[in-house]
Here is the input.
Amino acid sequence: DMKVTQMPRYLIKRMGENVLLECGQDMSHETMYWYRQDPGLGLQLIYISYDVDSNSEGDIPKGYRVSRKKREHFSLILDSAKTNQTSVYFCASSSRSGERLFFGHGTKLSVL
Amino acid sequence: KTQVEQSPQSLVVRQGENCVLQCNYSVTPDNHLRWFKQDTGKGLVSLTVLVDQKDKTSNGRYSATLDKDAKHSTLHITATLLDDTATYICVVGDRGSALGRLHFGAGTQLIVIP
Here is the structure.
């Protein structure tokens, strides 16, 4: 069906709590991404995954970690969330050629 | 330093009018350029991809140009509809594979009024 699904859509957490954002894709894409989008800024790359257990830091990895144990799932984890991690988080997946690129609907995270 | 600059930041047009969105970038190398549409609260949906040194694409009422010498792209929307209200994001890819990095502009917010 060619889609990227993110869960949850909205999340409110207190500072210091752990956060798990989940992403799934049904296209068997090797490459998956986590980005965050803040007002007035372009999307910023947090982590990129080239396949199962093959993950690389993006431009702003500090405070985040990822897990990819199955090709179709890519998780973003915030250990001890901070207020400056309030943002909208987008997951994306891409074919190896990069020609096909799909985004999820985003997870709006508020850290209070 | 921002490598992809979009203008205008926001734009209001009346339904039926045409509009042009601009994207200037400094990304090197510049393998390809994509335009995405982002509805409020939704993800990014690809409108078109430009690849050649001087490229043009057309997708219904959307058409786009790319000039790699000038590092400049335009997105034209013809006969705007209310549903065209969205943020349009320009993205430059530095490689022709998933190994490359994508550089995102902050977007142009288009509002179409009746």
